[in-house]
Specification:
Layout: E1 4-8, H1 13-24, E2 30-33, H2 38-48, E3 55-58, E4 61-64, H3 66-75, H4 78-83
Parallel strand pairs: 1-2
Antiparallel strand pairs: 1-3, 3-4
C-alpha cells in the first residue's frame, strides 16, 4: 500500500472530509498539522506550490486537495493509487 501524507489544520472542513474518506477506506496516513506551525506550512507550500489545506500525497504523487481526492474516488482511480507501492 502506498504511503499517504496529508498536511492539514484542525478546523478545516476540507481536511475533515479528506480524512473521513481515508478513514472510511481504512487507509493509514500521516497527518501533519500545520496549525500554529509556520515552518511546517512553509514546508507544505514548498513541496506543493499551494498555500491551502489539505495538501495530499499518495506515495510520491501530489494529489492536491480535498476536491482532487474526491474526484479520484468518483472516477474509481483512488483505490488503484492507494494499492500501488
Amino acid at each position: 500500500m502506498a504511503a499517504v501524507t496529508l498536511y492539514t489544520t484542525r478546523y478545516c472542513p476540507f481536511c475533515v472530509r479528506a480524512k473521513a474518506l481515508l478513514d472510511h477506506k481504512a487507509v493509514t496516513y500521516t497527518d501533519i498539522s500545520v496549525d500554529n506551525n509556520p515552518e511546517l506550512r512553509q514546508e507544505m507550500m514548498a513541496k506543493s506550490g499551494r498555500h491551502t489545506v489539505p495538501q495530499i500525497w499518495i506515495g510520491e504523487h501530489h494529489v492536491g486537495g480535498c476536491d482532487e481526492l474526491m474526484a479520484l474516488e468518483r472516477s474509481g482511480d483512488l483505490d488503484a493509487m492507494l494499492a500501488a507501492d
